Amino acid sequence: xxxxxxxxxxxxxxxxxxxxxxxxxxxxxxxxxxxxxxxxxxxxxxxxxxxxxxxxxxxxxxxxxxxxxxxxxxxxxxxxxxxxxxxxxxxxxxxxxxxxxxxxxxxxxxxxxxxxxxxxxxxxxxxxxxxxxxxxxxxxxxxxxxxxxxxxxxxxxxxxxxxxxxxxxxxxxxxxxxxxxxxxxxxxxxxxxxxxxxxxxxxxxxxxxxxxxxxxxxxxxxxxxxxxxxxxxxxxxxxxxxxxxxxxxxxxxxxxxxxxxxxxxxxxxxxxxxxxxxxxxxxxxxxxxxxxxxxxxxxxxxxxxxxxxxxxxxxxxxxxxxxxxxxxxxxxxxxxxxxxxxxxxxxxxxxxxxxxxxxxxxxxxxxxxxxxxxxxxxxxxxxxxxxxxxxxxxxxxxxxxxxxxxxxxxxxxxxxxxxxxxxxxxxxxxxxxxxxxxxxxxxxxxx
Length: 447
Description:
CATH topology of the largest domain: Rossmann fold
Number of helices: 10
Distance between the termini: 103 Å
Strand order of the largest sheet: 8-5-4-9-12-13
CATH superfamily of the largest domain: von Willebrand factor, type A domain
Number of strands: 13
Structural class: alpha/beta
Number of domains: 2
């Protein structure tokens, strides 16, 4: 009896196991799909996040590229769109969905605020979460960024030492100056579209003013159009030169033929070819009257000198809130030459017929090299007056002696410690010009 009961119990247990197995297996299959979808979701979303990061980085880089272009030149909306597309494409890094991202690229310009807003989006196909109709077939990924561009125009005077001591370094100086022009007025920028104008002021014993020398010296321009200094109350100002021909002292001195024959000073221009041509013609000659270069750099930025320069080179007003003015002054030595309008002995003829008399005119003076000598003192006074008018001054001393007179004058002329550079090698000189160009960019982008 007990054996029959046991057999019946075993039979019932087996039947229950069969029935339970039949109901559990579908449940296990369902749970396996759910676990696959949940586990795969991490993969799908990880892919989406990775692609979003790539897109965001590409979009930021493209927007900054366009902001830099907008800061240096005027662009149409179509040009902005095309350049933005090109920059975005170049930075997408073969994401795999670049066509969709580029197609969905959009931008908005706020010219009043000086901002550009850029966005894009893509739909990324899922591999796991759509299985069984549980999740979506795609994950939408969108990115956007907004960057500022400069609404300002820039006027920059490039004051370059071309004295005899620079004769072995002219190739480096040309490379350095050209690199600054390349950064601020990139290749392909037309004169009409550029928001940046640069003047080139090479100096030695004076500044070769070329076609402008006749007017400011009242005809006493020498054989090389070498313009030196002015005297009197206007000496440390940017007052315009006096057209009164009866007052010779109100004009600038000739007094020297020590300027290099080429190039002449180039007033403000946005023409790259003019600037690069002038730079590539730089040649070394003469002693160092750095104060004359500083003065003419200032005059190229001064609204008081619009009557001398061509219309397209006329500087803007100091009070114009949409104009930023900069001067970059470079020297490799100590200032040691100056000019006075004074009485001096002048002799004519030979032998018994030689006659001498005291006349008033421009005379060249040489002096020992010191940061407190006359030429250095005049240079510092001009720098101070220029800074008072709101010109931001960057200076470069091309040498290794930080205690030299030249280095001290450049430190004094700089707007601040961060705008003074010591360049002790050729590479350092090129780097200094490059860093200044980038700082100027950063200033007008930030304002």
